[in-house]
Design goal:
The chain is an alpha+beta fold and about 120 residues long. It has helices at about 35-45, 45-50, 95-100, and strands spanning about 5-10, 15-20, 25-30, 60-65, 70-75, 105-110. The two termini are about 25 Å apart. This is AtuA-like ferredoxin-fold domain-containing protein. Pfam families: AtuA_ferredoxin. It comes from Marinobacterium rhizophilum.
């Protein structure tokens, strides 16, 4: 019997830290439970992030896996309209955009979700 899955926003199962430099955004993603790591590793891919940030039109998304930490780090190029200080949009800092990543849906076993 396969494990029943439930769709939840990524923030239900992980947290993020972010930084920005120039036109480059850096977001690390860490699941709340180590058991979620394989589920997130399978679903939160470079293409998943690229699709989630499609309106920002990143020129490249690179994922770095950190298996000993059960974490992953994403580097997105050309998503900050030239940089936080040059962009005309409000509050386009990395930490703000990390919430965009955390709003994307993933499917995980229900028993691994914190209540």
């Amino acid at each position: 019997m396969s494990t029943p899955l439930i769709e939840v926003p990524l923030h239900s199962v992980a947290h993020a830290r972010a930084g920005d430099k120039g036109n480059r955004l850096n977001i690390s993603l860490v699941p709340y439970e180590a058991e979620l790591w394989p589920w997130l590793q399978e679903q939160v891919t470079e293409n998943f992030v690229l699709a989630g940030f499609a309106d920002r039109a990143p020129s490249q998304v690179k994922r770095y896996l950190l298996p000993h930490l059960h974490a992953m780090n994403f580097v997105l190029d050309d998503v900050l309209e030239g940089g936080v200080n040059r962009a005309l949009t409000l509050d386009r800092h990395g930490k703000t955009l990390s919430f965009l990543l955390l709003s994307l849906p993933v499917r995980v076993p229900e028993q691994l979700i914190r209540r």
